[in-house]
């Protein structure tokens, strides 16, 4: 391997995935959700009995299945990014389709869960717990929908071959955002369903 090629490989290893702007979004979202999570814990500390009783009204199985769905989706996104790096556009496109189908499954399960809770009379104005439950899971669901849109664009780029460095950076940026969606859920799920 020539010295210039070796130097390019080292630069590629040190490069941050995706577009730099996506990292501003990630940091901003983490800060905002950090404040929201802190607010949840504050209200929880002020009304422990109410929050504990309200948590018992939730169905942790929904949250658990949604966690598995999002983790599977993130694994598919990882497979897609690796396929793009190897120049396997069809494999990348298929992996992104799997990720999107799993993301859609998350949306459908969340809709069923909300409908079930609302049918039981547990709506945002029931109490402080359910107000925060719907706001936080709703904000997360909005992130899922934005992430699905990003994955759709990434899939189109991958299907076209993703030959340019910019194409690969856009796919990586979509992957980074999707992993943020996953990370937020991995914090939100135990916080809302289990923390006492």
From TrEMBL:
Membrane-spanning intervals of the chain: 21-41, 61-83, 95-112, 132-154, 175-195
One Pfam assignment: COX3
Keyword Protein transport: no
Superkingdom of origin: Bacteria
Membrane topology, as annotated: Multi-pass membrane protein
Compartment annotation: Cell membrane; Membrane
Family matches, as InterPro entries: Cyt_c/ubiquinol_Oxase_su3 (IPR024791), Cyt_c_oxidase-like_su3 (IPR000298), Cyt_c_oxidase_su3-like_sf (IPR035973), Cyt_c_oxidase_su3_a-hlx (IPR013833)
Record key words, sorted: Membrane, Transmembrane, Transmembrane helix
Domain Heme-copper oxidase subunit III family profile intervals: 21-196
Main location: membrane
Gene3D superfamilies named in the record: Cytochrome c oxidase, subunit III, four-helix bundle
PANTHER family noted in UniProt: CYTOCHROME C OXIDASE SUBUNIT III, NITRIC OXIDE REDUCTASE SUBUNIT E
Record-stated family: Belongs to the cytochrome c oxidase subunit 3 family.
UniProt protein name: Cytochrome aa3 subunit 3
